[in-house]
Amino acid sequence: MNDKETMTAEQFGEEGLPDWSWRDDALHAHFETGDFVTGVRLVNLIGEAAESMNHHPDLDLRYPHLDVRLSSHDAGGVTARDVKLARTISEQAAGEGVRAG
After folding, report:
1. Percent over 70 (pLDDT), the chain
2. What domains lie within the chain, and their CATH numbers?
């Protein structure tokens, strides 16, 4: 699958990303940051990864959590690029001691 080909919810389910759910043709995750500073640090890490991939998620930072939404607007749904970024974000969150909730 390439970065322009959309995937189905079933295909996404085979990717093994327990932090993420499929909703409204996008991937969603909720991370419990515990405090605002940790949330900002995670947002900055996500921003760096997203920029390097030329892919930009929707981020909603609140005390004490961060909601992330991924979708490839240019492809009209979820692509392999979203899955790759989701995997990276989950790894970054784990590295910061942040759990999905």
Report:
1. 99
2. 9-100 (3.30.1360.20)
